Amino acid sequence: MARSNPGLLLGLLLLRLNWCLGVDGGGAEEGGGVFPVVVSTWPFREAVRAAWDVVKTGGAGGSAVDAVVAGCSACEELRCDGTVGPGGSPDEDGETTLDALIMNGKTMEIGAVAAMRYVKDAIMAAKLVMEHTGHTLLVGEKATSFAISMGLAGPTNLSSPESIEKWSNWRQNNCQPNFWKNVAPAGNCGPYHPINIPKDPVKSAVWENQGITCQEWLENDNLLEPTNSHFNSVNRHNHDTISMAVIDKMGHVAVGTSTNGATFKIPGRVGDGPIPGSSAYGDDEVGACGATGDGDIMMRFLPCYQVVESMRLGMEPRDAAVDAISRIARKYPDFVGAVFALNKKGVHAGACHGWTFQYSVRNSSMLDVEVITVTP
């Protein structure tokens, strides 16, 4: 009988473990160089290829920042998953608005836009904020005015036939699911009112004229929260972001995000996409992180800042990613989200909760983009 080889069995076991956790087994470090490298949430291969085409050249025009802009712009143009760029994720009014962020890990400068209307080039607008203002975040119509004044095309209708059809169908379904809670009436399109007993007698009389009494608010459980709450419907096609990290040939780090936000969000909502440390964070001295998922939950924990700081303290990317996700899961067991971690050596890993997550990678040891699968 042939004798088993313990070393071979251990090696196979470790390989299997690394695949399940979404860890680069170290190949990126072979050959004495790890740069450049591009990592992105989801199988957004064309976005990673666009970033790679920029960063692989090195020198002028091949910076990490330029690569991030190229990659996120490609996803905006392709409308990745319907959740990036114009034409997707209508809010309650049927309008699409955009959020984006870019961060230079060498200087720690950041530019971001949120709830931006009528301009489709979100990541470019964020870069303009970083390069031409002393601010970090511009929002709403003033972000639009700034972007157009700096040369970006607009005003442009960011809706599409698909987004309008999606919104119309949602309205016909009594605006379910939605993001409201503790309101009455919960099961239709509003207007909504808090279920707390109003102290204002005028408001109380108005609401009672609509057929809803204070006693009904207290007795009817259906008034507390829509039965088809958004917490049960988060997925990459309605609640997603491209988050990208790049290390260029000089070892400089940049990160960026772009999203059109959560589908049927309350107008004015800003998710984690333009929030530094939540959707993305990067530092030349340490590495980078990107995140995706339920931004309203994740932004309460700044998971990417946590990942980078954990790596700064010596954690490996896998451990830092798992730790950041675990912190959220302990407080919100039903949340859906994921992060990838990339250290300054080019080693990468991912962690997720509530769904199976994939992220895309390209480095100098690969012939093309590779997709890493991470299980909860």
From TrEMBL:
<keyword id="KW-0068">Autocatalytic cleavage</keyword>
<comment type="subunit">
    <text>Heterotetramer of two alpha and two beta chains arranged as a dimer of alpha/beta heterodimers.</text>
</comment>
<dbReference type="InterPro" id="IPR000246">
    <property type="entry name" value="Peptidase_T2"/>
</dbReference>
<dbReference type="GO" id="GO:0008798">
    <property type="term" value="F:beta-aspartyl-peptidase activity"/>
</dbReference>
<dbReference type="GO" id="GO:0005737">
    <property type="term" value="C:cytoplasm"/>
</dbReference>
<protein>
    <recommendedName>
        <fullName>beta-aspartyl-peptidase</fullName>
        <ecNumber>3.4.19.5</ecNumber>
    </recommendedName>
</protein>
<keyword id="KW-0645">Protease</keyword>
<dbReference type="Pfam" id="PF01112">
    <property type="entry name" value="Asparaginase_2"/>
</dbReference>
<dbReference type="GO" id="GO:0003948">
    <property type="term" value="F:N4-(beta-N-acetylglucosaminyl)-L-asparaginase activity"/>
</dbReference>
<feature type="binding site">
    <location>
        <begin position="292"/>
        <end position="295"/>
    </location>
    <ligand>
        <name>substrate</name>
    </ligand>
</feature>
<feature type="binding site">
    <location>
        <begin position="269"/>
        <end position="272"/>
    </location>
    <ligand>
        <name>substrate</name>
    </ligand>
</feature>
<dbReference type="InterPro" id="IPR029055">
    <property type="entry name" value="Ntn_hydrolases_N"/>
</dbReference>
<comment type="similarity">
    <text>Belongs to the Ntn-hydrolase family.</text>
</comment>
<feature type="active site" description="Nucleophile">
    <location>
        <position position="241"/>
    </location>
</feature>
<keyword id="KW-0378">Hydrolase</keyword>
<keyword id="KW-0732">Signal</keyword>
<dbReference type="GO" id="GO:0006508">
    <property type="term" value="P:proteolysis"/>
</dbReference>
<feature type="site" description="Cleavage; by autolysis">
    <location>
        <begin position="240"/>
        <end position="241"/>
    </location>
</feature>
<feature type="signal peptide">
    <location>
        <begin position="1"/>
        <end position="22"/>
    </location>
</feature>
